[in-house]
Each structure stands twice: as structure tokens, then as C-alpha cells.
Amino acid sequence: MKRGTKIFYYNVALLMLVLLLVGCSDSAREEADAGTNEDALASEPVKETEEPKENNQVEENSKNGEPSAESEETIRNDSIETPSEETSNGESTIATGNEEENSLSTYSSEEIEYARVWLQLGPNQEIDELNVLHIPAGEPLNPDDNTDVKYPEDVIQLSGSRLVDGSVTYSGNGDGTINIYNVPLRWYGGFSPPDDLDKNDVIAEMENIIENTELVYIEPGMDEEVIDLIELLNMH
């Protein structure tokens, strides 16, 4: 083979080797760049994929009847920040109809009854004391004479400290009503009966009182006024 021909093939082989090396170098560089890009992508937080997952979880909890974290937080804040209607009004669970019972709860039912009866029927409200006298059945209407007319039941007589204060004689029925006996506090004005008094007339008058008692419903009255009278009670 001629020398010139050898040199030509030698140069071609060298050129092909150079091209091969250059190609391998570019391929290696591209692979390295691709690997770098993949590492960079792997190191970045995947925001786009996390948010849909959270939304899907909320929707899934809603479908299952479970409140989401956001709903639970809202409910918690509402329960802390928003006072109830009862608390904001500053009122108690107690109703208006029970206020009277609470203000009189320290007193007995008998004391409340005496005060209410006098408040409604007492001839004089400006009294110094409220006397309470229990008269058993069988006692005479006028203990100062010899008449045989007696009370058919237990009665209560309320009176002030003075004769001018008057009195109220009654029996309770246990249903808010009382039977009024129109008996005077002092027969004959506190004096002895007149000499010409007909005893039969007196007996007829007393029997008329017994047979014609007056049925009266006692109103509750104002608490303050009832308590003021209770404080004046003097039991006999």
C-alpha cells in the first residue's frame, strides 16, 4: 500500500475516534444534567399534590359525618367567645313566677298566710304589731258572757295592738281561700253588756255569724309588704 493511502486511512480513523469521544462526553454530560435536575425536583416540596390531598381529606370526613379540623376549630372558638343568652342577660335559670317564692322562702307558710290575710282584710295597715291568736273549735264566740254559741271549727284571730286597729277572724281552707267570721274584737265595744240587752237577740246574732261566713280568696300581695307584716307577728 502506498504511503499516502496509509496516511489517509490513519487520519480517518483518528477523526472517527475523536468524534466517538466527543459523543460519549456529551452523552455523559446530558445524563449528569438530567440527574441533577431530578435531584433538584425531588428536593422541592410538592405543594400542588399536598393541597388536593388535604381537600380530599376534608371532603372525605364530611361524607363520613366527621367534622374537619377547621370546623372543630370554628366550633371551639364559637363556644369560647360567644356567651350563652342566659349568661349575657345576667339572669338566673329561675322564672319570674319563682321570684316571690325565693324572697319568702325563709318564712313558714303560716306566717305568709297571716301577713297576706291582714294585708288584704286588715282594717288598719299602720300597726305596731300583728297579734295571732289560735282559737280551737268549741270555744265561745264571746268568752266574756254565758252564751252557748261556739266556733264549729278552729279559727285564727288577727289583730293589732290597739282596739282601733280592728281584727280579722277566719278559718283557712287550704286552697287560697278563707272563711271570714264577722266577730268583733271586743263585744259591746269592750264594755259590759247593757242591762236591757236581750240574751236571745245576742244568741241569734252569733248564730247568724256562724251560719253566714264569707268566702274570700286571698291575693298573694307584694313581697315587700308581706315581709314587713311578717316582721310584726306576735304569736299567742
Largest sheet: 6 strands, mixed
The number of helical segments is 8
| Gyration radius, rounded | 54 Å
Strand order of the largest sheet: 5-4-3-2-1-6
Q: Compute the average pLDDT.
A: 75
- Beta-strand proportion: 5-15%
How would you describe the shape? rod-shaped
Q: What is the strand tally?
A: 6
Q: How far apart are the first and last residues' alpha carbons, in Å?
A: 161 Å
Write up this protein.
With 236 residues, the chain is of the alpha+beta class. It has eight helices and six strands, in the order ααααααββββαβαβ. The protein has helices spanning 3-43, 47-63, 69-81, 85-89, 99-103, 109-121, 199-211, 223-230; strands spanning 130-135, 155-159, 167-172, 177-181, 214-217, 233-235. Strands 5-4-3-2-1-6 form a six-stranded mixed β-sheet, with helices on one face. Strand 3 (167-172) and strand 4 form a beta hairpin. Helix 6 crosses helix 8 (223-230). The protein is rod-shaped, with a radius of gyration of 54 Å. Residues 46-54 and 79-100 have low confidence and may be disordered.
